[in-house]
Design brief:
Shape: globular
Largest sheet: none
Radius of gyration: 21 Å
Strand content: under 5%
Number of helices: 20
Order of helices and strands: HHHHHHHHHHHHHHHHHHHH
Distance between the termini: 23 Å
Number of domains: 1
Length: about 450
């Protein structure tokens, strides 16, 4: 029995290593992208405008595609895989692709037409500067269609992950980073409004990322003509799981939206300081939390479909153990080394010494919630793999309420640092609730190694 457990953990570790290594390459290219953008734009009004224009489609992407959709789709996909009928599996993928694609097209048409309203929601403070607001609207109209392409890319990636093809989905974001670097270094000189080149770089990256995934899907014989069918049993099951998962799986994005709204009312540069600090936080989150979550969801879904409760708990325990062992020192290191790290990565070009200090302060506030945020990404699959999206929905609602109250209480006192600290407090509450729920439902019991940690 112990040999089987050890073998299972080694298999999970191998899968996690693949995701982490590919994600590491992606994150490093992302850092290079941010270094280039910070050198060109710094923490100016142009930087604030671009980050809002990028945040709008990314918010909806993480809300519907990488977050909630994957959590609802992968467990149902696991059921079709375990049934052993490839034709039924291929039909299910075609129907989900058709329905999902239709909804994405409608969303993009509405979002592009209503870009003014989106900017009003995401950055209401820009209304005080009509020129800044109008340019942001124009950029959102270019970046918003990115949502359709990147969401279909995430859909393809969730299928590949379910077949343990982790490398390609994890490294695909490199395409976006390269596209933005080219746009910043070369494309900006060809535009009357230089920052607009970055918006078109985002648009082009969406198309290229989707194309990047298609050959691997073809090798799995899962590419077919998308089909609309709202009555299909599998699709209806995904739909039932999707509604609460939209909120539960993407609570972090809603908290970021709250922060963006409040930051837009503060001094120029606040949005950029929060963005740059959040990007540094994304390194341990991407290398650890997302890598573990990516591996855990399909494996937990498979164990749940087989009725292996013991294996389910052990697998979840392994994820928690890895999260604590790596996440805790990462949080301490980011807090202690905040200023030299920010200076090393971003202090050049248009980025000033004052910007470094402001970004470092936000980073330190974010690190308070780093370990809870990592553990949240690890424990959430424990619910979604069991097709339970209602309980995380309730916990997410509490977390968002905490974030809103804390943000409103702190941002007028601490400025952008208060917004970052509120995000951390919300992450702590969310993590505690998720663990408590797993204990109450007797789904997870920490092993001895976790208790020793």
């Amino acid at each position: 029995m112990s040999n089987e457990i050890e073998s299972a953990e080694q298999n999970l570790a191998a899968q996690g290593s693949v995701v982490a290594s590919m994600t590491g390459v992606s994150r490093l290219s992302g850092f290079l992208r941010d270094v280039v953008i910070s050198a060109v734009l710094g923490a100016t009004a142009g930087a604030d405008i671009f980050f809002v224009a990028l945040r709008v489609p990314n918010f909806f992407r993480r809300l519907f595609a990488e977050g909630a959709f994957a959590q609802a789709f992968v467990p149902v996909l696991a059921e079709y895989r375990n049934a052993g009928d490839h034709d039924a599996l291929r039909k299910f993928v075609r129907i989900v692709c058709g329905n999902f694609g239709f909804l994405l097209v409608v969303t993009c048409v509405v979002g592009t037409a209503g870009a003014w309203g989106l900017v009003w929601v995401f950055a209401p403070g820009f209304l005080d500067d009509p020129e800044k607001f109008d340019l942001t609207v124009d950029m959102v109209r270019v970046t918003f269609p990115y949502l359709a392409f990147i969401s279909l890319t995430a859909f393809a990636g969730s299928i590949l992950n379910s077949f343990h093809r982790y490398a390609l989905p994890a490294i695909t974001p490199v395409v976006l980073n390269v596209s933005l670097i080219v746009a910043a270094l070369i494309g900006m000189r060809f535009f009357e409004t230089p920052v607009m080149a970055l918006a078109w770089g985002v648009f082009a990256a969406g198309i290229l990322q989707l194309i990047f995934q298609l050959p691997s899907l073809q090798r799995l014989h899962l590419i077919g003509i998308p089909k609309l069918d709202w009555r299909d049993r599998g699709v209806r099951k995904v739909g039932v799981l999707l509604v609460p998962a939209v909120f539960a799986a993407s609570v972090g994005q809603i908290n970021i939206l709250v922060g963006s709204i409040l930051a837009s009312t503060l001094v120029t540069g606040s949005i950029s300081w929060l963005y740059y600090s959040d990007r540094l936080m994304e390194l341990p989150i991407g290398l650890l939390a997302i890598a573990l979550g990516t591996v855990l969801l399909p494996n937990l879904s498979r164990l749940q479909s087989r009725g292996d409760a013991s294996g389910f708990s052990r697998t979840l325990d392994w994820g928690v153990r890895m999260g604590i062992l790596i996440g805790m020192p990462a949080a301490v290191a980011l807090y202690v080394l905040a200023i030299p790290l920010v200076a090393t990565v971003f202090y050049r070009g248009a980025m000033t010494a004052g910007d470094v200090l402001k970004t470092s302060a936000a980073l330190q506030a974010f690190t308070v919630g780093l370990l809870p945020l990592i553990l949240t990404k690890i424990t959430a699959p424990g619910y979604f793999a069991r097709q339970n999206t209602t309980t995380p929905f309730k916990y997410a609602a509490v977390s968002v309420a905490v974030n809103i109250v804390a943000s409103l209480s702190l941002y007028s006192w601490l400025g952008h640092v208060g917004i970052a600290l509120a995000t951390s407090l919300a992450a702590i509450v969310h993590c505690v609730l998720l663990f408590r729920g797993l204990f109450v439902e007797s789904v997870y019991r920490p092993g001895r190694q976790v208790l020793r940690v």
